[in-house]
Specification:
CATH superfamily of the largest domain: Type I PLP-dependent aspartate aminotransferase-like (Major domain)
Order of helices and strands: EHHEHEHEHEHEHEEHHEEHEHHEHH
CATH topology of the largest domain: Aspartate Aminotransferase, domain 2
Strand content: 5-15%
Oligomer: single chain
Shape: globular
Bound molecules: pyridoxal-5'-phosphate
Number of domains: 2
Helix content: 40-55%
Largest sheet: 7 strands, mixed
Radius of gyration: 22 Å
Strand order of the largest sheet: 2-8-7-6-5-3-4
């Protein structure tokens, strides 16, 4: 059976060039980077090179990169680290209703500890208003955390403008750029952010490795204690093969971004056009300010879960909401924040395209989906009542 993977926002395959770069660091080049002997020094050099590549990809300097176990840890370290470091100064944090759970739940946990959290609403396209951010800042505000691009609907936030305001008002600004890396230009000075999270497995690197950019002078209180690795901000022996993999993956992702995103946009627009040709299907997310590979639609009178299962039987992998929330039956918090009713939110499907996708994949999906939709609708009491 034909297999079509359109779930690149959940994870991506490791590219062969990346695997090749990583492989020696499991076996022959196995030293501990903290060791002073030649085995250690050789590996230290590889970690330093990966740090240089990561920094170069976002316009940072190498000392500003802290390797973590992924996007989740980078988000938690940024938010909890700033909150603890600045709690004498203030207790107010601003975030948005469409953040990844790593951000949203880290903020909600801080609320239990006495912090005040403003969760900004979004418009029907999932966009945060810059004016809302500005109005929410008070003299107790210590942190603003708003994502660069949304993982479910693909909406790109006005991060550079928010960054400008944060800097003017001297508030620390963190952005979760996990979905943006390799899909959008990311430069920490243009975005004017103090902290930025990324995760390698979202840009064809390995799972379980990410990085937090920490602008020089930004105070973070740490939670883990141990060795002096990662400037003591993230102690513990480095995951060397994964760090090398992240370095190689980000170098490739940024180098080939123009070519990749040009291709993805074309495929995405063809997919969206085809999907909207089915009756009672609507696009979720911003019509233009969206990730190059994201197509999120709601199919009325059908459950997203049933669509996913039927598509899976045809070899097509997509998701409904985010990978982390499927498994629960609650509708996506992102779609609810955009004002969708429960039924429309439940009928949502997210296609996220990547390197491997071709025009034939799009044709195949557009061929199988109308038939699945009409079969599922024919079983729906709501749909028969409507007709
Ligand atoms: C995937 C994702 C994360 C989590 O990253 P992990 O490396 O899987 O922990 C955080 N934020 C966003 C926007 C994501 O898409």
């Amino acid at each position: 059976m034909k297999k079509v993977y359109m779930d690149n926002s959940a994870t991506t395959p490791v590219r062969s060039e990346v695997l090749e770069a990583m492989t020696p660091y499991f076996t022959e080049t196995f030293g501990n980077p903290s060791s002073v002997h030649s085995f250690g020094r050789e590996v230290r050099k590889a970690v330093d090179e990966a740090r240089d590549k990561t920094a170069a990809a976002i316009g940072a300097s190498p000392q500003e990169i802290i390797f973590t176990s992924g996007g989740t840890e980078a988000d938690n370290l940024a938010i909890r680290g700033v909150a603890r470091a600045l709690q004498q100064k203030g207790n107010h944090i601003i975030t948005s209703a469409v953040e990844h759970h790593a951000v949203l739940d880290a903020c909600l946990a801080l609320k239990e500890e006495g912090f005040e959290i403003t969760v900004l609403p979004v418009d029907e396209y999932g966009m945060v208003s810059v004016r809302d951010v500005e109005k929410a800042i008070n003299d107790k505000t210590i942190l603003i955390t708003i994502m660069l691009a949304n993982n479910e609907v693909g909406t790109i936030q006005p991060i550079a403008e928010i960054g400008r305001i944060a800097r003017e008002r001297r508030v620390i600004f963190h952005t979760d750029a996990v979905q943006a890396m390799g899909n959008l230009p990311v430069n920490v000075d243009e975005l004017q952010c103090d902290l930025l999270s990324m995760s390698a497995h979202k840009f064809n690197g390995p799972k379980g490795i990410g990085a937090l950019y920490v602008r020089r002078g930004t105070k973070l209180k740490v939670f883990n204690f141990g060795g002096a690795q990662e400037r003591k901000i993230r102690p513990g022996t480095e995951n060397v093969p994964a760090i090398v993999g992240l370095g190689r993956a980000i170098e490739l992702a940024v180098g080939e971004m123009g070519e990749k995103t040009g291709k993805l946009k074309g495929l995405r627009d063809k997919l969206i056009k085809g999907l909207l040709g089915i009756d009672n299907v609507r696009l979720n997310g911003h019509p233009t300010e969206r990730l190059p590979g994201n197509a999120n639609v709601s199919v009325q009178f059908v459950e997203g879960e049933s669509l996913i299962l039927s598509l899976d039987l045809k070899g097509v992998a997509v998701s409904s909401g985010s990978a982390c929330t499927s498994g629960s039956l609650d509708p996506s918090h992102v779609l609810m924040a955009m004002g969708l009713d429960h039924q429309t939110a439940h009928g949502s499907l997210r296609f996220s395209l990547g390197f491997g996708n071709t025009e034939e994949d799009i044709d195949y999906v557009l061929e199988v989906i109308p038939e699945i939709v009409s079969r599922l609708r024919s079983m729906s009491p709501v749909y028969s009542a409507k007709k």
